[in-house]
Amino acid sequence: MGSGMGKTSTRGHKGxxxxxGSRTMRGFEGGQMPLHRRLPKRxxxxxxxxxxxxxxxxxxxxxxxxxxxxxxxxKNGLAGKNDLIKxxxxxxxxxxxxxxxxxxSKSAEEKxxxxxxxxxxxxxxxxxxxxxxxxxxxxxxxQEKGKGQAKPRKK
Length: 155
Fold this sequence. Notes:
- The protein contains five helices and six strands, in the order αβαβαβββαβα.
- The chain has helices at 35-38, 57-62, 70-75, 106-114, 124-145; strands spanning 52-56, 67-68, 84-88, 98-101, 103-104, 118-121.
- The termini are far apart.
């Protein structure tokens, strides 16, 4: 019993493909303009983008817990272990929930507080919010003392 692939061993006669060590680059289409070069390009990829795992209020309400933490969301498969979590306002809340997440949409925050619960920022978002407030307070304090104003230059 033979393989039926004698003589050229399915490589054909002559040419680049018949030689040993021959390998074409990824996307090569035999000289035809490759697909990745034929398609138009648009925009760019921001390498500093922060990606959030989004979770809607109706999914949180379905958990049946009063205090919702990222660990609880990971345990129930709503987010991954190292994901940053953003809560969106899709769905209705019937009971008060205390939700901890890295970010909240305005509608989610309104619905949580309207139901009598609390939306708690954790991690980088809470630190960022505090950092934004601190310079403003410091600036206001300096202006009250008369500091931070330009002095006339001497000639």
